[in-house]
Amino acid sequence: TQLLEQSPQFLSIQEGENLTVYCNSSSVFSSLQWYRQEPGEGPVLLVTVVTGGEVKKLKRLTFQFGDARKDSSLHITAAQPGDTGLYLCAGVHSGGSNYKLTFGKGTLLTVNP
Amino acid sequence: GAGVSQSPSNKVTEKGKDVELRCDPISGHTALYWYRQRLGQGLEFLIYFQGNSAPDKSGLPSDRFSAERTGESVSTLTIQRTQQEDSAVYLCASSPRWSSYEQYFGPGTRLTVT
């Protein structure tokens, strides 16, 4: 089984702090996505990265794809309570079926006011 | 426009009973996916539809699980003789084309088997 390991599993911070969550694998991915899931809802796609070394920014969120396309990080600047949720990374394995996403277990982020 | 909808939102059933979960994808989306999310786990792929055919059923955990899709619209996931380990949130997603990275998820059905 080709896994995506996410860390930390849980993160509780104060409003205004910065944080980074990680998504790692021993496998190469042709693309990697980050989702945010709120309680009682399905995951919502935040970003897709496809090129090794790629960096994408979405307001206060910065996503990076590792040079070797085996890992990714999500950095949030000046976190707000509205950022609270489960952050999931998901990837399409290089050479695998291009519709099948492998998901990590997620990082549960709580931002306290 | 309307997103992916799923029904029921919650289902409590007794062990051994059959359940049907429904997914209405976004209109015009040809691809449809079912996932299972257990507490503290990531999403587990179950089955993929392209139109009304299912080229990949590899994620279905056992022969108690089956799924159908009518044309490019509604899909039903059926679990027969439910077991307690089937308790999970079942998520449906659709995408506009078969190789799309863009999967749009419904809110899920929370299944509890007592």
Task: Label this structure with key terms.
heterodimer, A: 113 residues, mainly beta, B: 114 residues, seven-stranded mixed beta sheet, four-stranded antiparallel beta sheet, 11 strands, globular
List strands and helices in order, with pairings.
The complex is a heterodimer of chains A (113) and B (114).
Chain A: E1 5-7, E2 10-14, E3 19-24, E4 29-37, E5 44-49, E6 55-58, E7 61-65, E8 71-76, E9 85-93, E10 102-103, E11 107-112
Chain B: E1 5-7, E2 10-13, E3 19-24, E4 31-37, E5 43-50, E6 53-56, E7 65-69, E8 75-79, E9 88-95, E10 104-105, E11 109-113
Parallel strand pairs in B: 2-11
Antiparallel strand pairs in B: 1-3, 3-8, 4-5, 4-9, 5-6, 7-8, 9-10, 9-11
What's the mean pLDDT score of chain A? 93
The largest sheet of chain A is: 6 strands, mixed
The rounded distance between the terminal residues' Cα atoms of chain B is: 37 Å
Q: How is the quaternary structure best described?
A: heterodimer
| Helix-and-strand structural type of chain A | mainly beta
The gross shape of chain B turns out to be globular
Mean pLDDT of chain B: 91
How much helix, percentage-wise, in residues of chain B? Answer: under 10%
Fraction in beta strands of chain A: over 45%
- Which sequence of SSEs, written as H and E, runs from N to C of chain A? EEEEEEEEEEE
SS summary, helix count of chain A: 0
Residue fraction in strands of chain B: over 45%
SS class of chain B: mainly beta
Kindly state the number of beta strands of chain B: 11
Can you give the helix content of chain A as a percent range? under 10%
